[in-house]
Design brief:
mainly alpha; 75% helix
C-alpha cells in the first residue's frame, strides 16, 4: 500500500491537507492493527505448552 501511494504522495502532499490527514489516519490504523497482531501470543503459548510436555516426558519418564 505504501509503495503504491508513494508517487501520489510525492505529487499531492503539498497541495492537499486532506491527503496528508488520510495518510496519517491510515498509518495510525495500520500500526494499531500490526501491534494487535504482534501482541497475540496464543500460538506462542500453545507451542510453549507442547515444549513443556515434551520436556516433562524427557526428564521424568514413566517407569516401565
Amino acid at each position: 500500500m505504501w509503495a503504491a501511494s508513494a508517487v501520489p504522495a510525492w505529487l499531492w502532499w503539498r497541495d492537499s491537507v486532506l491527503f496528508v490527514i488520510a495518510a496519517s489516519i491510515f498509518a495510525n490504523v495500520y500500526a494499531a492493527v500490526s501491534a494487535l497482531e504482534a501482541a497475540d501470543d496464543s500460538a506462542v503459548r500453545e507451542d510453549l505448552v507442547e515444549v513443556k510436555a515434551m520436556l516433562r516426558e524427557l526428564l521424568d519418564p514413566e517407569p516401565e
